[in-house]
Structure prediction request, 130 residues.
Amino acid sequence: QVQLVESGGGLVQAGGSLRLSCAASGGTINSYAMGWFRQAPGKEREFVAAINRNGGRTSFVDSVKGRFTISRDNAKNTVYLQMNNLKLEDTAIYYCARDRKVSAFVSISTPQTADEYNYWGQGTQVTVSG
Prediction:
């Protein structure tokens, strides 16, 4: 059973940066696309970013393009979300997730819907203050 643990959240002023980490244990992420989602109070969980299995392809929701980057270190079984120029509207609980399907070695898949993922972390709170 894969366990995903997010870390790196916290309180930051608008314009600041945070780096989230998602460490996997009990299983590998190496053959899977990985994603980050977020959920703000009173809102639906939304896609933020995804990365294909070898890290060569990424996808982002429009609202974070140019500010967030996603990366992975398969040797460390870890995925990262670097968040720069944070805005008030980035305040949310951030979750990482593993694709439910094994990706082919050359796959460029970066799933963007929650139902494409079947393992989720517990989330880490990101709060951006004005």
